[in-house]
Amino acid sequence: MPAIQSPGTEEIHPDVALVARAREGDGAAFEQLVRQYERQIFRVAQHITQNREDAEDITQDTFLKAYEKLEQFQGNSKFSTWLVRIAVNESLMRLRKRKTSKTVSMDEDVQTDEGSIPRDFAEWRPNPEQIFDQNELNDILRRTIQGLPPGFRTVFTLRDIENLSTEETAEALGLSVPAVKSRLLRARLQLRERLSRYFRERKEGQPA
Amino acid sequence: MNCTDFLSQLTDYFDGQISPELLEEVRGHLSGCKHCEIVLNTTRQTIEVYRGNEVYEISDELRERLHTAIMTKCYEKKGA
Ligand SMILES: [Zn+2]
């Protein structure tokens, strides 16, 4: 039963109506939800798995699962957060299967502070976009984020790239808010340290 | 506040979720510590450079292909 919106209540997210229609079998409503989030789900899957074919499969599986489980969607979280949660689980499962990385759970890779303690204290040149062309820059950014443990990479992707709130990130990952914050801090500091090699100011006469 | 304390407040500082008293301490530390000021600035730049550049762009062609595949799978499911 769709809620009636009375004046003065909090604004209801437009997805709520779409989800309700999709549940009643409205294919067009579901398709609109797919259109809205397919890019985001693909990006998330690609960031976590670092593999395009996996990301394509995961995107398809995520929406198929969502379609099958639409009845189970509680509505106390955002539909997009719910989708991201499915995509994250699918992605981590895929990583585990491939076993290309030693640790693929959200918990296992948090013991070490290595790389999270700042060592490089140089200012950066103001516009990396002007130092590197777009391809070089994307390449640097990709390689740098690839080097993070999957758990850190995932938190950074959701919070900083996809702009989920800390609470939404926690919900999508099944982590507590403090756990998200601590991973986010280390992810940011590790990325900063690594990017600093490329973006730091150079002294006169130093090779670029 | 020392550098380690400062770092532990960095996330809340970015999120603007820091109590006025702590904010005061953070600012106090920043005014006297060049290293932390640089860490703050370059961490902000780190976030901005990732936000500003879509590292994994998805082409229109790939998007259409994906979209069709998703909808086909879902319709198959429905019919099954
Ligand atoms: Zn300091």
Description:
The complex is a heterodimer of chains A (208) and B (80). Chain A is built from nine helices and no strands. Chain A has 208 residues and is mainly alpha-helical. Chain A folds into two domains: 14-98, Rna Polymerase Sigma Factor, Chain: A (Orthogonal Bundle), CATH 1.10.1740; 128-199, Winged helix-like DNA-binding domain superfamily/Winged helix DNA-binding domain (Arc Repressor Mutant, subunit A, Orthogonal Bundle). The longest helix of chain A has 23 residues, at 27-49. Chain A is elongated, with a radius of gyration of 20 Å. Chain A starts with 13 loop residues before the first helix and ends in a 9-residue tail after the last helix. Mean pLDDT of chain A is 87; it is low at 1-6. With 80 residues, chain B is mainly α. Chain B has one domain. Helices cover 80% and strands 0% of the residues of chain B. The longest helix of chain B has 20 residues, at 60-79. Chain A binds chain B through residues 27, 30-31, 34-35, 38-39, 42-43, 46-47, 55-56, 59-60, 63-64, 67-68, 118, 121-124, 128-129, 134, 137-138, 141-142, 145, 156, 160-161, 163, 166, 181, 184-185, 188-189, 191-192, 195-196, 199, and chain B through 7-8, 10-12, 15, 34-35, 38-39, 41-43, 45-47, 49-56, 58, 62-63, 66-67, 69-71, 73-75, 77-78. Bound molecules: zinc ion (ZN). Zinc ion binds at residues 3, 6, 29, 33, 35-36 of chain B.
